[in-house]
Specification:
This protein is an alpha+beta fold. The chain has 7 helices and 4 strands, in the order E-H-H-H-H-E-E-H-H-H-E. The chain has helices spanning about 10-20, 25-30, 65-70, 85-90, 115-120, 125-140, 150-170, and strands spanning about 10, 100, 105-110, 175. The chain has a 4-stranded antiparallel sheet, with helices on both faces. Helix 3 crosses helix 6 and helix 6 crosses helix 7. It is elongated and about 60 Å long. The model has no long low-confidence stretch (mean pLDDT about 90).
């Protein structure tokens, strides 16, 4: 599992190349040439600096299922771009996402999948977070009685930039790497 959750918009051409070259995504996100691939064999578009990323997430190895629940409205596993967080805790569940490395750390979806994902990200409200948070806590056997809107608002501040990033990616015809 990756140490930090980040999202990065990228053209479908980049995503396809990275999918064909497992592991090169890490160098791509660092803006450096990947080891084992000659520099002259890299595409002309290879970044020389890290691409813009959304990294202000509270998601970590203990809670990607909570973020999945918030995004998708339930704990049920999905097979579409809603697998954004699910990829971290159920990477082998059949989903229409691309694995970009052999360690189940980096994944992607193409531009055609983003409208549905953006719709979900835009639908996250305090009420949907509260419902998901309570459900997640109950499923985890954790206390939930003291949860209120104030405990849920920080999640909105994470999903709102994601929704904006998705809108920008859709406008630009890009997919998403995470």
């Amino acid at each position: 599992m990756a140490f930090g959750f980040l999202t990065c918009a990228a053209p479908d051409e980049h995503i396809a190349w990275l999918h064909e070259h497992p592991g090169a995504v890490h160098a791509y996100l660092d803006g450096v040439p990947p080891e084992g691939i000659a520099t002259d064999a890299l595409p002309a578009w290879w970044p020389s600096a890290p691409p813009a990323m959304h990294t202000s997430w509270g998601v970590n190895h203990r809670n990607p299922d909570l973020y999945h629940w918030i995004l998708n409205g339930s704990a049920d596993l999905v097979t579409d771009a809603g697998a954004l967080f699910q990829a971290w805790y159920a990477p082998d569940h059949p989903a229409n996402i691309l694995k970009l490395d052999g360690h189940n750390e980096r994944f992607a979806v193409t531009s055609g999948q983003l409208p549905a994902l953006a719709a979900r990200a835009h639908s996250v409200t305090v009420d949907t977070v509260l419902t998901a948070f309570v459900g997640w806590c109950k499923a985890q056997g954790k206390s939930w009685e003291d949860l209120d809107v104030y405990a849920c608002e920080p999640f909105l501040y994470e999903f709102q930039p994601l929704a904006a990033q998705l809108d920008d990616a859709i406008r630009d015809g890009h997919g998403l790497i995470w």
